Amino acid sequence: MLVPLATRLRPKTLSDFIGQEHLVGEGKPLFEAVKQKHLMSFILWGPPGSGKTTLARIYAKALDAILFELSAVSAGKPDVKKIVEQKTMNKPKVLFLDEIHRFNKAQQDYLLPFVESGELTLIGATTENPSFEVISPLLSRCQVFILKSHSQDDLTKMLEKAGVSLGEGACEWLIRYANGDARRMLTLLDSAQQLYGKVSADTLKNALQTFAVRYDKKGEAHYDTISAFIKSLRASQPDAALYYLARMLEGGEDPKFIARRMVIFASEDIGLAQSTALVLANEVFKAVETVGMPECAINLAHAAAYLAQAKKSRASYEAFRAAQADVQEHGELPVPLKLRNPVTKLMKGEGYGEGYQKYDQASYLPDKLKGKRYLDLS
Questions:
Q1: pTM, 2 dp
Q2: What is the tally of structural domains in the chain?
């Protein structure tokens, strides 16, 4: 059986790993963990094809640990129990749990005592924000490392390493197609070579046509379809929004992911123009958690139709981003004395709270930003 190119090229050590220099470069956290053989549980959060599985395997091998790999899509408590019960001759057990966000609260609770006691060293991998998808007690016991999409330079180096002769324009075509996903790029490269014996822009396009059209919850379709859904809501096109909603749900997308994006949209794009949108979006998110699929699809459709037709205003979002930019530029500017709380006599003597009046119309901003306007409701 021919081993796929992406598998053949998978790095075995950090020295062979390309990209994610903020994590694996000399002196960076994963570099030091491997170098010092430091045993720790962590979560790798990043887009598809960014190296999460590869880093987990490199780490486990460097620590001479026994690595167990599970996918949270199909695994459950019994699978974890079997791993815990296995004897490993005093070698540490590392559990790599792909798509950890697919484990429900009860399943994540089950992991806790084993991670806490050190019986299991957990490496979770997820494309979703772990702050939302991983329970707080488990999250507090794990480091979170954020992976980025591979840069053009990273992908170019991988193509060079592949040792495949590329025709004119093929390298640029592959990199554009990959959109930061190394596995996606190498899979298409492999397919073109196997089908046509040579790799050019034309054979790549032809090979791409042979791929089955499907909704890949971990791949490009996931990001493209949610993007189309949000853009349809923003453009006040309920029919398009409902179509993309149906496409995601029929493809098996997590309904909580969709509901969460609508909660964000309600404040980011509708905001002050129709504040009830946030109330409805939050209630729909609760309904999704309570009702579940397939019935909660009706709740999601309700919200999508409402949000698409709602008036739109990004005033509060843009005002916050402008204020955020000033905080980043100016740091912690002194709070005006009259706004400070005079908790002690000393503070009162220093002028804390002096001159404060309810409903004062004078600016409460720090002196350096006096007169600055963030919120524009015109």
A1: 0.61
A2: 4
